[in-house]
Amino acid sequence: MAYPQKLLNRGEHINLDLHPHWVVFVKPGSVVIVLIAVAIWAQQLSDGWLKTGVSRVLLVAIGLGLVNLVSVFLRWSRTYFVVTSQRVIFREGVLARRGIEIPLERVNNVNFAQSILERMLGAGDLLIESASEEGQQLFGDIRNPEQVQNIIHEAIHE
Fold first, then answer.
1. Domain ranges, ordered by start, for the chain
2. What pLDDT, in 10s, does the model give residues 109-122?
3. pLDDT in tens, 76-118
4. What fold does the segment set 13-157 form as a domain?
5. SS (H, E, C) 56-96
6. Strands 14-18 and 80-84
7. What angle do CA 80, 76, 18 make, to 5 degrees?
């Protein structure tokens, strides 16, 4: 789902529109997969109250894991990192919303950081320093942060 055009200023165009990196799904997805594997293993137990109890607990845990995975997906789908011709925009939240806007003319510095694993996956953090009250904004789980850094620099010098 793309960033809504109706929220742009007159004459403003989008240079980059990103959702967080897919790595945000790894932890909740892994939990569900492990719980399903344990549930399959638990079916090998001999019949009786232990098998029934373990199965019920695992079904509840799998259900909660799936609810968590869906909530992560909803947050992911409603989180935007956008670079336009005038500003950097960050919006997140499903019910309660939070937004950050940094005009390009106020951006002083753009830095990125990636661990070895993040580098292999193409994810990382972006730190934007600006001439504002907050000064620094850290954006996590950005796809290809080095490329995003370059796009921001290009937008500043347009």
1. 13-157
2. 999 999 999 999 99
3. 999 999 999 999 999 999 999 999 999 999 999 999 999 999 9
4. PH-domain like (2.30.29)
5. HHHHHHHHHHHHHHHHHHHHHHCCEEEEECCEEEEEECCCC
6. antiparallel
7. 35
Backbone CA torsion sign across 90, 129, 13, 25: negative
- 142 contact partners, CB below 8 Å, separation of at least 6: 18, 20, 21, 81, 112, 123, 124, 125, 126, 148
Residues counted in the chain:
158
Measure CA 73 to chain center. Answer: 9
Packing angle of the helix pair 49-77, 26-42 (nearest 10 deg): 160
Q: Report the DSSP beta bridge partners of residue 43.
A: none
Q: Give SS3 for 6.
A: helix
Q: Token digits for 122? A: 């193409």
